[in-house]
Amino acid sequence: METVAIHAVAIGSDHAGYALKTAIADFLRDSGYEVTDVGTHSDDRVDYPDFGAAVGRAVRDGDADAGQSVCGLSHIHN
C-alpha cells in the first residue's frame, strides 16, 4: 500500500459545528498544514450537507489531499 503525504486539508461545518471547525482549522494551520475552509464562516443557521459536499468536492477536484467536516452533533467525518 502506498503512503500518501497530506499537505492540504479542506474543512467545513454547519452553524452548530462552527466553533469546533475553527479550532480544528487553527490547530491544523499551526501544525503546518494548508487549510481550505469551505464554510460556514459564522454561527448563522445553515444546512450541513452543503458544506459536507463542498469538502468532498475539494478533495475530489484535487484542491485538498484530505477533508474534514464537522456537523452540529459534533460528529467529525474524514
- Class per helix and strand makeup: alpha/beta
Helix content: 25-40%
The tally of beta strands, per DSSP, is 4
Strand order of the largest sheet: 2-1-3-4
- Beta content comes to 15-25%
Cα distance, first to last residue?
19 Å
Average pLDDT confidence is 92
Query: Which residues form runs of ≥5 with pLDDT under 50?
Result: none
- Report the C-alpha radius of gyration, rounded: 12 Å
Count of alpha/pi helices? 2
Biggest sheet, open or closed, and with what strands and sense?
4 strands, mixed
Question: Which geometry do the CA atoms define?
Answer: globular
Give a written overview of the molecule.
With 78 residues, the chain is an alpha/beta fold. The chain contains 2 helices and 4 strands. It has helices at 18-30, 48-60, and strands at 8-13, 34-39, 66-70, 76-77. Strands 2-1-3-4 form a 4-stranded mixed beta sheet, with helices on both faces.
Q: Concise description?
A:
This protein has helices spanning 18-30, 48-60, and strands spanning 8-13, 34-39, 66-70, 76-77. It has 78 residues and is α/β, with parallel strands linked by helices.
Key terms:
78 residues; four-stranded mixed sheet; single chain; alpha/beta
Detail the topology: elements first, then pairings.
Elements: E1 8-13, H1 18-30, E2 34-39, H2 48-60, E3 66-70, E4 76-77
Parallel strand pairs: 1-2, 1-3
Antiparallel strand pairs: 3-4
